[in-house]
Amino acid sequence: MNTYLHTFKFSDQPPEHLTLASHRSAPRWQRLWVLLRSPLLLQILAVWAVIGLVLIFHAVVTQAVHQSGLRHQALAAQSQAAWRCKLLPSASARQVCLRERPTASGQ
């Protein structure tokens, strides 16, 4: 068995040029592709995506709760106006009041 290994050195190039893939000579998209395939970067991107989705969900739920509160206030105001109209003494005044009161749709 031959255990004597030869090393070759070119006289016109330093040894670091013998590597097959140099990061300096690779195009930007290839370096970006290698970076995107990194497991750590993929995990970081996944964490940011989850945080973003949770924040969007929070904003949607908060807006829905706020809109529900506004709807509840509008319905309460409408029912209170109808109650006041029904307390009027004359029937004609009640009819006029009920026709003129605002509806929940804002008409």
Question: Would you spell out the secondary-structure blueprint of this structure?
Answer:
Elements: H1 28-36, H2 39-86, H3 91-100
Helix pairs in contact: 2-3
Structural overview:
The protein is an all-alpha fold and 107 residues long. The protein has helices spanning 28-36, 39-86, 91-100. The mean pLDDT is 79. The termini are far apart. It has three helices and no strands. Helix 2 runs antiparallel to helix 3.
Which key features would you list for this structure?
107 residues; 63% helix; mainly alpha; 3 helices; rod-shaped
Could you write a compact summary of the structure shown?
Helix content is 63%, strand content 0%.
Q: Can you tell me the overall shape?
A: rod-shaped
How much strand content do the residues show?
under 5%
- Gap between N and C termini: 99 Å
Work out the helix count: 3
Helix content: 55-70%
Which stretches of 5+ consecutive residues score pLDDT under 50? none
Query: How many β-strand runs?
Result: 0
User: What do the pLDDT scores average to?
Assistant: 79
Quickly give the structural class.
mainly alpha
Write down the Rg: 38 Å
Order of helices and strands: HHH
Largest sheet entry: none
